[in-house]
């Protein structure tokens, strides 16, 4: 043995992992000491000449690739490059070991494979750590996924890395959208940058953290949703590697708060209305008596005047104005609900017909197309029919006024099964109600009509009557093409309860 060969054998023997040298026929040429120890083989010569399959004694193991095309030894020989095979080995004591068998070709002067070195490394510890880490990571994934709070994480460039199910629901994206998604798309323009700025600002909840902050987020459909969010930068050492945000949808909370404020406003409004009603009723009573006198004495004076008297015209003017005053007083009394209510069962279609009949004669309707879209079967409601006629007249008169005498008036009746109600819609093709007027149209004395043309009591009277009958009166639609008022009354069997959320 030459000194250099001796040196090589010593290197081979002192390798700290079991190693074999095989020829291209898969036969063992040499085995190092570590290999013999591991396999409890006392003499190298006992295995030289055998195939590696013989040595590993599991020639019939279907998991071993020895007889298959993917045998790494065969591949190393064929491709002249290194290959490896990770094997899970069940030991006699029942424990599992992991081996990484690495095959490296030894090439001759012509570049052909003459031998292959197979070294076996025990990677059980690494593998166990890997399995444990995978378990932790899967567990963490499940924790994040099942969190009811929406969570989003993104890399340094804002590319979304993770979006849990709650976040998918909030933002309206699906899991397959995530790889294409940048954090900027989740907020209105500039907000994502603002959040990053706060995250890096020491004075804002500490470096890398953003405490609960109120922002709007943007969904996939472009809808803006109010949320509260906290955010953090995820560091590896000192380096920023990702950011994450946890959100809290505020829609429900804000809607409850809004409803509460509306309810408070309604209480204030109805108190205002009640005192206004008492005032109106008092004034109406006081005026009623002198007014009856004016009407009576003017009528008497007219009777006494000769037919050609120049005073007749003046007295007629007094009579007309006094009659107008009487109508106003009558309205005021209805508005302040000083008249009693008499409920009966009647059909909605009859109410519509009756309302129309009461104004049909007037020349007001001359250039108006009346379109009736009435429900075929009878919708029976229980309410004060007489007062509701007044409501119909007020709504139809308003529609006619809005169309300045020309247009289409549609009267529609239908049943709303869901709300147990009968509905009447009064639709016009008029000018519509301006946004700034809309909140006030049901207020008493609120009118946009010229002085002398309207008292502003029509809708406030109507809504008073409708509420007394457990119904609701609302503006269903309004715009440059016209307005639709919706009058809803409870069906006979629901009349006592009214609608749980009746408004207007
Ligand atoms: N169909 C409608 N189209 C457009 N605006 C309407 C309509 N109905 C009501 N309005 C608006 O609501 C205001 C209040 O209506 P309301 O019936 O209470 O009073 P009015 O019609 O002005 O006076 P009155 O009814 O005493 O003659 C109106 O002045 C008008 O501005
Ligand atoms: Mg009116």
UniProtKB/TrEMBL annotation:
<dbReference type="InterPro" id="IPR001610">
    <property type="entry name" value="PAC"/>
</dbReference>
<dbReference type="InterPro" id="IPR004358">
    <property type="entry name" value="Sig_transdc_His_kin-like_C"/>
</dbReference>
<dbReference type="InterPro" id="IPR005467">
    <property type="entry name" value="His_kinase_dom"/>
</dbReference>
<keyword id="KW-0808">Transferase</keyword>
<dbReference type="GO" id="GO:0006355">
    <property type="term" value="P:regulation of DNA-templated transcription"/>
</dbReference>
<keyword id="KW-0902">Two-component regulatory system</keyword>
<dbReference type="InterPro" id="IPR003594">
    <property type="entry name" value="HATPase_dom"/>
</dbReference>
<dbReference type="InterPro" id="IPR003661">
    <property type="entry name" value="HisK_dim/P_dom"/>
</dbReference>
<dbReference type="Pfam" id="PF02518">
    <property type="entry name" value="HATPase_c"/>
</dbReference>
<dbReference type="InterPro" id="IPR036097">
    <property type="entry name" value="HisK_dim/P_sf"/>
</dbReference>
<protein>
    <recommendedName>
        <fullName>histidine kinase</fullName>
        <ecNumber>2.7.13.3</ecNumber>
    </recommendedName>
</protein>
<dbReference type="Pfam" id="PF08448">
    <property type="entry name" value="PAS_4"/>
</dbReference>
<dbReference type="GO" id="GO:0000155">
    <property type="term" value="F:phosphorelay sensor kinase activity"/>
</dbReference>
<dbReference type="InterPro" id="IPR013767">
    <property type="entry name" value="PAS_fold"/>
</dbReference>
<keyword id="KW-0067">ATP-binding</keyword>
<dbReference type="Pfam" id="PF00512">
    <property type="entry name" value="HisKA"/>
</dbReference>
<feature type="domain" description="PAC">
    <location>
        <begin position="83"/>
        <end position="135"/>
    </location>
</feature>
<feature type="domain" description="PAS">
    <location>
        <begin position="136"/>
        <end position="178"/>
    </location>
</feature>
<dbReference type="InterPro" id="IPR000700">
    <property type="entry name" value="PAS-assoc_C"/>
</dbReference>
<keyword id="KW-0547">Nucleotide-binding</keyword>
<keyword id="KW-0597">Phosphoprotein</keyword>
<dbReference type="InterPro" id="IPR013656">
    <property type="entry name" value="PAS_4"/>
</dbReference>
<dbReference type="InterPro" id="IPR036890">
    <property type="entry name" value="HATPase_C_sf"/>
</dbReference>
<dbReference type="GO" id="GO:0005524">
    <property type="term" value="F:ATP binding"/>
</dbReference>
<dbReference type="InterPro" id="IPR035965">
    <property type="entry name" value="PAS-like_dom_sf"/>
</dbReference>
<dbReference type="InterPro" id="IPR000014">
    <property type="entry name" value="PAS"/>
</dbReference>
<keyword id="KW-0418">Kinase</keyword>
<dbReference type="Pfam" id="PF00989">
    <property type="entry name" value="PAS"/>
</dbReference>
<feature type="domain" description="Histidine kinase">
    <location>
        <begin position="282"/>
        <end position="493"/>
    </location>
</feature>
